[in-house]
Amino acid sequence: MKLLFCCAGTKPEPWIAGLRAALPAADVAVWEPGAPAADYAVVWAPPQAFLDEQPGLRAVFNIGAGVDALLKLRLPPTARVVRLDDAGMSVQMAEYVCHAVIRHFREFDGYEADVRQGRWSYRKPRSRADFAVGVMGLGVLGSRVAQALRVFEFPVNGWSRSPKALDGVRSFSGREGFNDFLAASRVLVNLLPLTPDTQDILNRDTLSRLQPGGYVINVARGAHLVDEDLLALLDEGHLAGATLDVFRTEPLPAGHPFWTHPGMTVTPHTSARTLRDESIAQIAGKIRALEQGEPIAGIVDPVRGY
Ligand code: NDP
Ligand code: OXD
What percent of the chain has pLDDT over 70? Predict the structure, then answer.
């Protein structure tokens, strides 16, 4: 069985060594143009030429959870696209989002600014009942995030395509449930996949429906958010701030207003990193299952887009 590795911006040597150790019977190599036909591919942002050269691939393993960029390419007709299924990402995402929510709720940025100026001052405690958090997307990452927020006793709303039953999380679903979900939320966390249905979903109309003093946390994809609409609602005072980890153009271009806007916290697409060892173990386990004719989790539905 032959496996090719083709991941832009990723040092291949440790991945190749790890994949060889996990799959001793496999022939594992870094893709180069003209490579012989392979059965499986491990990819991140591969060139179209790679996929065109490998029409016989049985499965393409994406070393990320989001497959929006991969699905824009022409894929081998029989290849299943397989996303990373947690592999150590959900706990990181829960840390990141809880940190952002708590930092905002407890006004820790205000305290940091005070202390830097030598000021010992108190702020009035806020009621967490006034800070309902709405989590868009209750999949592998969103459901973990929603449950982590419940530990801190925030009211938590969740929105997904199909209804969900998560302990302590108020479930809203479908287009018909979206406006009620927004109206019930003050802090909005985006963990949707980027698909034609969800592109630009964070816009003036939807963000205006959040409770006054709303706060936006986007950890999914930059193209979910209409940048100018967020900036306008911040400037008008309907929104209190935002924490953004993902952007339409990455790295965030120099001079973009998000770098310096007060109330805005920016991080460089780092909320949930791909962990090499966990990912290799998961991919190798799935390849062994496929070789035995067994079903695997994490197969992407190309029509749904996630
Ligand atoms: P999943 O596929 O497991 O979950 C997606 C969720 O979104 C599901 O609950 C699904 O509903 C819901 N959903 C999809 N489309 C719609 C829609 N049109 N309306 C309402 N709900 C919808 O994805 P993950 O949780 O694993 O990951 C989510 C995204 O997070 C990734 O696609 C990626 O873009 C981003 N990500 C960002 C990272 C970062 O470092 N910033 C790291 C990893 C991922 P249903 O359950 O009903 O199908
Ligand atoms: C992912 C990401 O989709 O890192 O896994 O954004």
Answer: 100
